[in-house]
Amino acid sequence: MAVLEVLQYPHEILKKKCALIEKIDNKTNQLIDDMIESLHSFPGCVGIAAPQVGCSLQLIVVNVSGHKKTTISHGLLMLLNPVIRMREGEVISREGCLSLPDYTGNVKRAVKISICAQNRMGQHIEMESKGFEAIVLQHEIDHLNGILFVDRIISLKNDLFRRKKYKEQKE
Ligand SMILES: [Zn+2]
Hints:
Layout: H1 26-41, E1 47-49, E2 59-62, E3 77-88, E4 91-96, E5 103-109, E6 112-118, E7 124-130, H2 131-144, E8 160-162, H3 164-170
Antiparallel strand pairs: 1-2, 2-3, 3-6, 4-5, 5-8, 6-7
The chain binds zinc ion (ZN).
C-alpha cells in the first residue's frame, strides 16, 4: 500500500468526467487500497475521489467515523460507479478539499440522499445517508463528474474563505 499524491486545482483531470469501472482487477484493488491508506494518512480527511490521485475512474472512498460533525456513519465506504438516485432537503455547510488546500467555502447540498453503486466485489448496492456523511458523499461524487466545491459556491464574493488555520500551521 502507498500514500498517493493528491492533485491540486486547476489540474485538468479534476475537471473531467471519470470513466465507469467495468472490470475489477488487481490494479483496481491496488488503487482502492492505496486510496484507503491515503484517506487515513491525511489528518481530518473524510473522503477521496480517484481523479484526485490522478485516476479518471468512478471510485470514491469515504470514512466520516470519529469526525466531530458526524451524526451517522457507515464506517469505511468504497463505492464504485456511485450514482445519487434521490435527494431530499437542503443544507448549507462549510466545505474544504485536499485539491484546494487553501480555501473553504459555503455550499448547498441535499440533507438526505440515496445512492446506487457497486462494492469492491462488484456487487450492486443501495444505501441511504444523511447529515455530514451525505454531504461528503455528494462532494466526492461531484469529483467523478469534474465538479469541485468552488463550482457550487453560493457566492464567490461572500462564501469563499482563505483557510487561515492551515497557513498558521505552515509558518
Ligand atoms: Zn474534494
